[in-house]
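Hi support team,

I submitted a single chain yesterday and got back a structure, but I'm not sure I'm reading the token output correctly. Could someone confirm the output below corresponds to the sequence I sent? I've pasted both exactly as they appear in my results page.

Thanks,
R.
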Amino acid sequence: MPTMTQPTPPSSLGLDRQAIPQGLLLGQGQAGYPPEFLDALDVLLRRSHHGTPAGALIIVGIENLAMIMSGYGPAVSEDICLAIMERLAALLSPADRICRLHKDQFALLLAEMPEGGLSSLTCRLSELVQQFGYQSEFGSLHVLPAIVSIDLADPRLSLEDVLDKSFIALRTGHGVIQGLSEETAQDSANSRQEMGLANYLGRALLEQRLRLAYQPIIESKTGRVAHYEALLRIVGADGKISSAGTLIPVAERMGLINLIDEQVLDMVIAELARAPELVLAFNVSNLTTSNRQWLAQLKQRLREHPDVAERLIVEITETAVHRDLKKTAYFVAAVQSMGAQVALDDFGSGYTSFRQLKSLSVDMVKIDGVFVRDLVDNNDNRLFVKTMLDFTNGFGLKAVAEFVETGEIAKMLMELGVEYMQGYYFGKPENHRSWLKES
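Hi R., thanks for writing in. Yes, this is the structure output for that exact sequence:
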């Protein structure tokens, strides 16, 4: 990576590196953090260790720089970075330093604590970046700041502490950090617990201890099983089987969800291949709706088992719709093009508009159990469910009511016109596979 003192291409803002006072400017190393930044930060920390009042470290990131670069090119994104760096430098004193840590991150090393406090300066910096506008041929471009500031006065802080805390804070939005005491024992315990759960999941994957449990979905008019939903379970080291539902958010945060959803897909396809009359639905993570590799795996498995596609239902959630409607719509269309169906799970929980639902073109919606559980006693929920059923029926969509736990609820749903029902009243998820004679 070039150093900050090398010349840059001409900028439409009329900026170059010489516009930033050289007393403030530090270089960029070849890898990791720039050596000059590490040296200057170490000097500030040593002052604190010797009882001399120390300053602070502020890191300013640009969250949407990748989007800007993708849409408008590297030259525009570099112009924006230089302009923002110049504005940040203008707020510093001669004793302070500024450094470009990464393409989208800048470090401000303050020799002394700013007047008004660290929180006040952090707010000013955030406003400065948010108010910045780059005039391009496509209109004004704006950036989204991510800012973390660390008070270096705590003499217990080491260089590693500061770098680690700033890395974590930038990605968790913690903002201002006052030394080591800001990271509470509870925060540490939660992090350790989450890592423990991630390790538990990882071992279960490697040791192939994932299993499927099956819950029936009943056809309202006939009372027969229309299909089953396959739900993920984990076999513990003691042989006990437990639900994996609460672990899915951990898997998403820890980067394990792709492996899990790929393994679940193989398990579902294998089960369908064993039982020619079986129809199975299963959930995929919100992140999987953006995973082209998973779609490629699905295509390959259906090529190997062409008779399975029409008996496969992929369930997505409303959260995926809100994350990125365009990508979710592509995912739905891709799955349907392979001959499988798509269901929208937990419909109503996120209040997906009927217009969005129409644009998705799913085959089936599953009405969130929150509206079904107290259907008998809650007039508002009855009206809401009836409205959803009127809409789905009008557009030729199948509807499944979840969490049907009593016969009274089932009777009312049938009167409202729901096609399918699922819940403990009809059957709990079971590992036993009734469709296989050997089971």
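A quick pointer for reading it: The chain has two domains: 17-184, 207-421. Let us know if anything else looks off.

Best,
Support desk
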